[in-house]
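User: Reviewer 2 asked us to show a designed sequence for the structure in our supplementary figure. I'm pasting the structure tokens here. Could you produce the per-position amino acids so we can include them in the response letter?
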């Protein structure tokens, strides 16, 4: 990975010596996307690792306009001294991924999230070829002149976005994730107009302001999902005071986001209750993840008798439509529910469910650079990582099929450096 110095802002243990890319679910019926940190590695190395380069403003290149054809864009990139990269990309709405050679420049770009909906063009905004990936972990291989935050050999991460305007009120307060001009990591459009390429590749170039330092002791493959899923639940817990020992936290949904929310809640010293439609997840929630209680949301009597008005807050991670009135009944007066899943149908919110108890419903979209760094430090201190299944690149299309069936516990992680070349 290469990081660049911003032209307009100054802003351990069992470490796995390889690059890890994670497929992670962030929005509603979206899949868990493959997110990886791509960096060059030495062919003769015993255990190839991801590399990150850092570039200075003088190396920032003007990008071709979006209206140019894919071929013209790539030709322009080559002419402007791009870094050769090997990745896997979807060429059309089938969403099938295959090897793809392209050129990466020292850009600070990325403006649309990539997931199953993008590679299959469900939203009509895919810019093929699409190289997925927005949860990325790797090792810095090079830094450009002027870069001060990182050096070669540092273990780092890149999350959901790689740039923002840096001049609006939101950015000035440190909430880059809510900037109207936020630039996402994959299938995005940089300010010059070219499409961004995500983490399914062997190299990535990133502005140093949007690069995260991975603490010693965190395993790379278990850390990558934290850069999107982890901070998505951590940041609202911090913002709404759902991080105090003794408080009662409800976690709705035990998937990619939910299982990490349980881990953070227990590390904060909270009582944690998992709420799920699947009774079969009880043992996983309590025996493996350490939750204190488990409720079946379809069992109205159990929900009413066991937990009415007992919770200080709820993190709702479910991406499918579901009734939220029964969930709001679980909150104490002045309790807060935070929605981090994005169902494809509007949720129903009767005023009687919130007004009498002064209850609140808020949303949350990932977290800022500062939020993500703080989350990583907390995870490092408490040994928190996602539950993952590590796969090789040549398994990625099968993994996507499994993701559509929700057949993963809880994240796929792609060993990019260890399998990209052979898969191609």
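Assistant: Here is a per-position design you can include in the supplement:
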């Amino acid at each position: 990975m290469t990081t660049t110095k911003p032209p307009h802002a100054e802003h351990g243990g069992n470490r796995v010596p390889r690059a890890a890319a994670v497929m992670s679910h962030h929005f509603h019926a979206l899949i868990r996307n493959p997110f990886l940190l791509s960096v060059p590695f030495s062919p003769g190395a015993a255990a190839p690792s991801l590399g990150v380069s850092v570039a200075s403003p003088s190396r920032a290149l003007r990008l071709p306009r979006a209206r140019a054809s894919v071929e013209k864009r790539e030709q322009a990139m080559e002419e402007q001294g791009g870094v050769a990269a090997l990745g896997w990309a979807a060429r059309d709405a089938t969403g099938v991924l295959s090897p793809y050679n392209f050129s990466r420049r020292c850009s600070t770009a990325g403006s649309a999230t990539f997931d199953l909906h993008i590679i299959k063009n469900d939203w009509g905004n895919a810019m093929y070829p699409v190289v997925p990936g927005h949860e990325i972990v790797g090792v810095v291989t090079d830094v450009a002149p002027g870069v001060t935050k990182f050096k070669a050999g540092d273990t780092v991460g890149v999350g959901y976005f790689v740039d923002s305007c840096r001049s609006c009120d939101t950015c000035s307060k440190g909430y880059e994730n809510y900037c109207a001009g936020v630039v996402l990591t994959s299938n995005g459009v940089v300010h010059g107009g070219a499409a961004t390429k995500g983490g399914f590749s062997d190299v990535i170039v990133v502005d140093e302001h949007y690069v995260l330092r991975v603490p010693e002791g965190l395993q790379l493959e278990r850390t990558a999902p934290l850069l999107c899923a982890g901070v998505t639940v951590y940041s609202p817990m911090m913002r709404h005071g759902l991080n105090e020992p003794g408080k009662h936290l409800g976690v709705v949904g035990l998937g990619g986001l939910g299982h990490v929310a349980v881990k953070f809640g227990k590390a904060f010293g909270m009582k944690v209750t998992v709420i799920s439609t699947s009774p079969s997840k009880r043992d996983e929630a309590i025996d493996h993840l350490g939750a204190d209680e488990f409720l079946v949301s379809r069992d109205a009597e159990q929900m009413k008798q066991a937990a009415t008005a007992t919770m200080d807050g709820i993190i709702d991670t479910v991406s499918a439509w579901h009734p939220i009135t029964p969930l709001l009944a679980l909150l104490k007066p002045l309790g807060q529910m935070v929605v981090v899943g994005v169902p494809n149908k509007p949720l129903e919110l009767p005023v009687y469910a919130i007004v009498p108890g002064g209850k609140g419903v808020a949303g949350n979209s990932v977290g800022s650079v500062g939020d993500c760094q703080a989350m990583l430090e907390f995870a490092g201190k408490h040994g928190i990582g996602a539950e993952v299944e590590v796969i090789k690149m040549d398994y990625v299309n099968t993994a996507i099929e499994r993701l559509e069936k929700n057949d993963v516990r809880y994240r796929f992680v792609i060993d990019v450096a260890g399998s990209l070349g052979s898969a191609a």
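For the response letter, you might also mention the following. The CA atoms of residues 15 and 219 lie 5 Å apart. The first helix runs from residue 70 to 79.
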